Prior knowledge:
300 residues, 7-stranded mixed β-sheet, globular
Amino acid sequence: MGGILEVMRRAGPGSGLLPGSRSTLMRDVFSDTEGHAVTAVVPSPRNGGLADSGPQQDLLAALVRPPCHLEILIPSRNEAERLPHTLIRTIEYLEAQIYSSSLVVVDNGSIDQTVDLVRRVRSRRVPVTVIGCARPGKGAAVRRGIQTSRARFVGYMDADLATPIETLDTVVPLLASGSQAVVGSRRIDGAVFAERQPFLRLAGGIAFRVAASRVLRGIADTQCGFKFFSGDLARAVAGQLSIDGFAFDVELLSAVVQRGATVTEVPVVWTDQKGSSLRPGTDGARAIADVFRLSRRMAA
């Protein structure tokens, strides 16, 4: 609770986490008199690491969510420090839209207060859910979120909000007009680096892009953490995917292209945020190896 209270102290008026603020964000998830209750499903050693939410009905209700126009997935592992700002900004944005939406945090084995924090956030208009994914890796977490979504459009973004949520002002109309895959890009005209990555991340990114070009041509930026899809398309390809790590994006986009869909890139204003779980050495090498394995598999 200390972490939650600290978030409230820093939030200030209008954030929605303080009494009397104008936003409809609320900490009290235990009252069922209004709004949408939050169901937490987190990994548990008692049942093989699958989930522990109480009755089986709660588990099923949390894993297969009601339909909505847009569902946003946030894969998270130990994101208690960075997630509060992202949740506040995202919910405030979605509450102002005319379409229905929901926000799903896919917890990937956090040992900090990530799950506790999400359970204490609620909105009158935007369901906020946290589900668990015991299999480690961003790819595994996103896959779990897609496979349990029933939204018309579904996508994912980073827990640090490196891409402004207002980018959806461009993304959602494109999806509604027929685009099946719309992704943020830091490497096309109009993109802005508000704060650049450290040198090691930049160097690793160059090496990864060279490897990814063997599998996926014509997409300038496969790794920007802001991707949205037709729900039917995303669900159709998710079951075919197997990469759990950071090369998941390449595999996902490749599967989308193989189904004949066009990937539309939109420029983003991107800010490098401290606290990323990506380890340039270990994770970068694994991601490049995964891309080469994907390339051989596609060529077979």
